[in-house]
Give the backbone structure.
Amino acid sequence: MPAEITEEQFRQEAVEFLEANAKVKEEEQKFVWGEGDDKVALFDEKSRERELEELAEAQEWRAKKYDAGFAWITGPKEYGGRELPSAYERIWNSLEAKYDVPSASFFGIGLGMVAPTILAHAVPEVKERYLPKMYRGDIVGCQLFSEPGAGSDLASLQTRAVRDGDEWIVNGQKVWTSGAHYSDIGEIICRTDPDQPKHKGLTGFVVDMHAPGVEVRPLRQMTGGASFNEVFFNDVRVPDDHRLGDVNQGWTVALTTLMNERASIGGGGAGLGGGIANATRLGEMLRHFGLQNDATYRQELVKVYIAFQVAKFTNQRAMDKIKAGELPGPEMSIAKLSLTNNMWATAQLVARILGPRITADTGEWGTFAWNQFVLGISGMRVAGGTDEVMKNIVGERVLGLPKDPGIDSTTPFRDLKVGTQTSPV
Ligand SMILES: Cc1cc2nc3c(=O)[nH]c(=O)nc-3n(C[C@H](O)[C@H](O)[C@H](O)COP(=O)(O)OP(=O)(O)OC[C@H]3O[C@@H](n4cnc5c(N)ncnc54)[C@H](O)[C@@H]3O)c2cc1C
């Protein structure tokens, strides 16, 4: 069935809205060493006050967009979407990128991972209750998966949910929860039957982050900020209608979220050209330190550039599959692995050029700022699946190597010795 509005009409409507509500970005300035911001941090870390101000600005912009029909272009109409083909979303994204609008990073996890899972697995009342508010930016969502003893091996998680009539009582601890401190709801995976094998006794829920018994404690990172949290659940009551999918089918729910996570990380940053570590910036750094004619540095710079380009095209293959409605295969893992390897190669090159300047803050432009890039890479290597886990996927699914022996899919969870489990759940 053809869309009610042509792409050209939509584009016109979008331009009118943007012109009326936002300012066009100033032309990208030509990079000049020593001018402008020298920030190259991988994690955007700010004070809590500034974070709240930016969140409010981002929410205001989302609400405006939503009310005008540009915040959930492909979503079903019954939950506030516009039900247009994804080509229309691409038109919107490319137009919006030309305007100076508040950061969308606060909504990355909620809209990129949690909302698609709610849409796929929640009951209609829960979809009605949360999806319009999430897409309007009125509420923010977080992902409550990892635990101290369950990260790569997520199915070893121990947070328990026990049924009590029409409710579930949740007890346990999650960790590394990005943005939990400003989130209103979370997608949580809990163990509901320890007598089943570890992947089979799990259930997903939508949990109210303001409910009694939810305690959020920030974790300080080595880069200085605190974007992640520990979240403790002490007898937190969750209504049964907030369950995602069937009881003990939470692994399928988790996989929906993880597929969306890898797609958003891999899709996010494999291009050196537009990224913070772009070739112009690195080339100018060589020139500034008088190394532009040194063959070894030049060779390293070109190697890094080529590696980013190769990753960009591999990533494009995965994105094209998603756009064509296919499930991405191991390309997603290759893209994620290449991204972190290439970031590391960049960091090594920069560290060679800068030497001790990267470790001491002397106020010299474009030098110590790279410290934030170098220190952030470890987090990137871990988030959304570690390098080693990505290598396992490539080994098994591309090279056909034997399966990782660590996956015990038949023993009841209660009988496994996992993570920090000290007593039977
Ligand atoms: C920036 C960032 C943001 C995050 N945000 C969130 C969030 O919002 N919500 C959330 O739930 N979690 C989040 N996480 C947590 C993240 O999902 C986990 O850190 C990740 O899954 C790894 O788990 P772990 O830290 O427990 O490490 P472990 O799984 O304990 O791994 C430790 C080491 O062992 C290696 N290893 C583990 N298993 C294998 C294997 N089978 N084969 C080979 N090597 C292996 C790993 O590669 C790693 O080097 C975030 C993490 C980071 C860094």
Q: What stands out?
A: Confidence is low (pLDDT under 50) at residues 267-274, 420-425. Residues 109, 142-146, 151-152, 176-178, 228, 379, 382-383, 386, 388-389, 392, 404, 406 surround flavin-adenine dinucleotide (CB under 6 Å). The chain has eleven helices and ten strands. The radius of gyration is 23 Å.
